Amino acid sequence: MCVTCGCSDDAETKITNPETGEVVAMNSNGHHTHTHTLADGTVITHSHNHEHHADSNAHIHAKMHGNTITLEEKILAKNDLIAAQNRGWFKGRDILALNLVSSPGSGKTTLLTRTINDLKDKCPIYVIEGDQETSNDAQKIQETGCKVVQINTGTGCHLEAAMVERGLQQLNPPLNSIVMIENVGNLVCPALFDLGEKAKVAILSVTEGEDKPIKYPHMFRASEVMIITKIDLLPYVQFDVNRCIEYAKQVNPKMQIFQVSATTGVGLESWYEWIAANVPSLAVQI
Amino acid sequence: MHELGITQNIVAIVAENAKGTKVQRVTLEIGKLTAIMPDAIRFCFDVCCQGTIVEGAELEIIEIPGLAICRRCGGKVPLEQPFGICGCGNTDLEIIAGEELKIKEMEIEELCV
Predict the structure, then answer these.
(1) Nearest C-alpha of chain B: how many angstroms from A255?
(2) What is this model's ipTM?
(3) Contact list, A254 vs chain B (CB under 8 Å)
(4) b/e per residue, A157-167, with b = 16+ CB within 10 A?
(5) Which of B2, B4, B15 lies closest to B103, judged by CA?
(6) Chain B residue with minimal CA distance to A74?
(7) What value, to the nearest 5°, has the Cα angle with vertex B40 and ends B35 and B41?
(8) Structural domains of chain A, with CATH
(9) What is the pTM assigned to this prediction?
(10) A189 and B1 in contact by Cβ < 8 A?
(11) pLDDT tens string A109-157
């Protein structure tokens, strides 16, 4: 018996018209029909045509009647959920969390150590360092006297919210502090993974191509801020700052852009003002 | 490279929802504006499925084209990348399609009496 409609699929029912001699097999003729009366009075007559009725094999029947389950589930739902928890955790402690993203070698760590040295007396800064291997960057941060945890992702190419959650347990940043999350040097994958940060900060150095914002649009679109670093090198490189800004605005019209040199200190003021605007306890001091 | 981790997520979510029943087909919706390559997902899928109840399942990927609405004139702008320019000259666009990254549905084996 068919579990869908209860018909006898082996019965081979036929309808014969004695006047014309026409024989109609019900199986091949669209199955049996039945009538429904809908709530509004409409009468609908239809059939449930089962292609499988020619088969008596229950296993084949099962295969053809796979049960489709609608999931509509976001693939990154788990990461997004943990990120939301992290975001709540930061908010409850009035912590500004920033996710620093860039290509390898853009000067993230140099900018970070400079920022820490300039701001650490005014506001406690805590750091989560993400790298595939080594704790070299964590050591550089540690030299500034600031508390840091290193996350080595091994073969992974980005930090995930769960890694940051575990890092925060180790780091235990206090109320009204800043947590800088230095992501793995990569302009592709970290764009997809929310960590619970207030904003992604994309760092681009003038020794790279000025067209990076349109080459890696996902990252520059996901970032609220772009910092162009190493601007003290501009006389020696072919980097068109205006064109770079144009590209960035094309991808992300609302992007905040700063031009700095962590070596000479040029332009850092406006970057610090942006940080201060997002840390209430710091705003009065800068 | 991130497709491997994402595919592991897909297989885990599907296996969890299948509750021990063999999975025959998995349908994904991947927007063309996400940084995800469907071919890389296909490549990883068979590897990630091995030894799970998802092993042997058919993978179907529906690619969703990118579409944005212009925040200035309200016109629709089809997109190939996650940015673009409207006919009215505005680049401030709101993407309304093409960023999907989800498991739409799955088909599990149903036993017949």
Answers:
(1) 11
(2) 0.82
(3) 92
(4) bbbbbbbbbeb
(5) B15
(6) B102
(7) 90
(8) 14-64 (no CATH), 77-283 (3.40.50.300)
(9) 0.77
(10) yes
(11) 999 999 999 999 999 999 999 988 888 899 999 999 999 999 998 878 8
